[in-house]
Design brief:
With 263 residues, the protein is α/β, with parallel strands linked by helices. The model has no long low-confidence stretch (mean pLDDT 96). InterPro entries: ICL/PEPM, Pyrv/PenolPyrv_kinase-like_dom, Pyrv_kinase-like_dom_sf.
Length: 263
Amino acid sequence: MTNTNAAKAELLRSLHVPGDPLIVTNVWDAVTARIVAGAPGVKALATASHAVSFAHGVEDGEGLSVEQALSVAELISGAVDIPVSVDFEKGYSPDAAGVQRNVEALIAAGAAGINIEDSIGQPKVPNFSIEDATARVAAAHAAGVSTGVPIAINARVDVLAGGGEWDDAVARANSYLEAGADSIFFLGLGTEELVARAIDEVNGKISVIAHPGAVPLRKLAELGVSRVSFGPFVLGLTLAHLQATATQLTALGDYPEELGFKY
């Protein structure tokens, strides 16, 4: 298992290419994982903590227990053959030592990659101190070393999304990279100018979240982004279609063609 996980982690890392970004359509259970993995061109998956939490009837922001989070990771990782990056929120621990233990358990569950964030609460303020947040990234990296599975770390910077300052966000991004992060999940890059500035000032690969109204995918690629995900918006897309279908059927409308989808 370790050799397989290690190979998946290395593959996931290699898929983060500036200008040819890894596109990950976020999933939250075994069936969504299999459906997305079966789509042409899909090379890796990523979970979304918001979607996983809401599917369990709890709020995002570590509403799940660590045991539940690990169980979901194992379920999804075991459902597909391609690498899975797990949104592991804050690491489910108040300190870096606990983050390392939990990431070791996450690797044992089959994860090839991890998202770890630097905000303490919801909404995305306040943040851990830069020292504490950096130590937590270093702990995730240490888990990869200790297990022999070099888990790909996508370290999230929440500063701009929480109303903070640009210089703080960039300083954190570069600190996390020095601590072992492989890419920076930089929230708050809502314009082409901000994306370009982040790519210029951050000493590593940039990952962004996209949605209607965000910078178009082709432009993100042109600017040099390495990864694009969609977070809770994929769950919203799915639920919107489900609700629209329920409305149509309840009104004795036509059968939607998608009712015949083979999964």
